[in-house]
């Protein structure tokens, strides 16, 4: 029979009781964005279909937009990994907010799959920021772009923000892929 002294026995009992007392959800989630390195073809097709349908809708409207939010003088690959994650999180916040707007029934149906995918990606990015870089301060490039985004949200029409977000979704997806890569991306 195994004989344990009092200190090892106490440690064993306390360890077991504390492990059972802590809810499983209190453990930090690990940050894994690897599933976004290579996007599934059906997700890309759903985004492409939505974008094409939106472009058809845009042809029928007389919407004139001046926002150049996604035209940047720098490339996402130039940013640090925490900056990339912050950038994509902000882009996804905008995209999901715009895809969540009321729309015609056919367009509302078309955008459901991309909206669900982008929402999940945004939540995964938030988990990563919370676990890996909760106190990260953005670089000057990113800080300037985030300010530009906030200004656009205040000054641009909802229609222009929606158009900008939807028409640049493939850029956002590429930025997501870049954020998922822990090394340099192109």
Automatic annotation (TrEMBL):
Keywords: Antiviral defense, Cytokine, Secreted, Signal
Primary residence: secreted
Molecular function per GO: cytokine activity
One Gene Ontology cellular component annotation held by this UniProt entry: extracellular space
Pfam annotation, one family: IL28A
InterPro entries found in the cross-reference section: IFN-lambda_sf (IPR038326), INF_lambda (IPR029177)
KW Signal (keyword) present: yes
Domain of life the protein comes from: Eukaryota
Gene3D superfamilies: Interferon lambda
Subcellular location: Secreted
Gene Ontology BP, a term: cell surface receptor signaling pathway via JAK-STAT
Signal peptide: 1-21
PANTHER family: INTERFERON LAMBDA-2-RELATED (PTHR31943:SF1), INTERLEUKIN-28 AND 29 (PTHR31943)
Family label: Belongs to the lambda interferon family.
Protein name listed in UniProt: IFNL3 protein
Organism lineage string: Eukaryota, Metazoa, Chordata, Craniata, Vertebrata
Gene giving rise to this polypeptide: Ifnl3
